[in-house]
Amino acid sequence: MSWSLKVVRLFGINVYIHWTFLILLGWIFLSSLGAGQSTTEALISIGFVLAFFACVVMHEYGHALTARRYGIPTKNITLLPIGGVASLEKMPENPKEELLVAIAGPAVNVVIAILIFLYMQIAGLELPTTQLEDPSQLSLSQMFIPNLLLVNVILVLFNLIPAFPMDGGRVLRALLSMKYDRATATNTAAKIGQFLAIGFVFLGFMYDFWLIFIGLFIFLGASGESRYETTRFLLEDLKVRDVLMHQFTPLHAWDSISKAVDILLDGQEKEFIVEEDNQIIGTISRDDILRGLKEHGGEARLKRIVNPDWIDLSPDMQLNDAYAKMQQSRLSICPVFDENGELTGILNQENILEAVMIQSARRGEIEQVEEGMN
Ligand SMILES: [Zn+2]
């Protein structure tokens, strides 16, 4: 979270803004001044961007608070210059619940748009056209409300494009999951999304460069989501105990970076847990060790470079849940504790990857047998 600034905490969820968002605001302010606007007008432009992002935050709260009803917590919402991201712990796997969580975001913008529309009717304001108004005819403050209506409509339309990573992709997947299993539904939704993405790129070359950008964004999102879901599908019946590693080398907080380098060179392990006074104080990856070596030298203690984040896993946990949590927190290794709180092993991304390969080979075997029988 070091790149993000906490702005507010509402309904138990922290709202962060990414520092690049501040650059966006500064850029808008300066370019407004550069275009010959007065300071007041430049501030109104900033105000508009803030109002727009407030709508985006409300959209994300729509997802987060609906997910909470189904027992899925959200740690935070982060605003990036390209939009908002709500870090839901996972998406509900029940199709009806997923449908409602996915649609709740755009639904918020529909409500906002209706409220603005009603206000404009009462106040006698003219509706926006998709054409840009001539700035000399309308002052910025007069355009503020109609444009806010327009961006909410765009938010709804954009998010309902039926392709991952847009909400529309999840809506499509949820609808397909009502008929097919989740992996099939995900793959089908991803293929439809990629087909649309290619269409966007194609249209982009003919009409508008931005469509190419949207197309590429969708194309990458669709394949990423499909890979994630296939992994989850393959890990479905496994528990953490099925794949955890009992053999590992714990490092000590007072060990030197050189010692970690030796162990790194000596065996297959790439990530380690770090202990101090028989307590785990964090984890360390190969990249951390190499960076530490460069910045602090080999004599420095691991305590200086340890990554203090990890999640306690238990052997009875569903492997899928452990995988989702590790992905969410971008962890490559986690300690596993038994019911007495004793460290019994570790789980890393490589264990999970191996389990995926074994499961997919097994399924291939089963399919071959089934094909042979037909
Ligand atoms: Zn959304």
What is the structure about, briefly put?
The chain is built from twelve helices and nine strands. It is an alpha/beta fold and 374 residues long.
User: Which molecules other than protein and nucleic acid are bound?
Assistant: zinc ion
Number of domains: 3
Biggest sheet statistics:
4 strands, mixed
Oligomer: single chain
Please give the share of residues in helix. 55-70%
| DSSP summary, beta strand count | 9
Structural class: alpha/beta
Helix and strand pattern: EEHHEEHHHHHHEHEEHHEEH
What is the residue-mean pLDDT, rounded to a whole number? Answer: 81
Rg, rounded, reads 25 Å
By DSSP (H or I, 4+ residues per run), the number of helices equals 12
Question: Ranges with pLDDT <50 over ≥5 residues?
Answer: 369-374
Strand content: 5-15%
The gross shape turns out to be globular
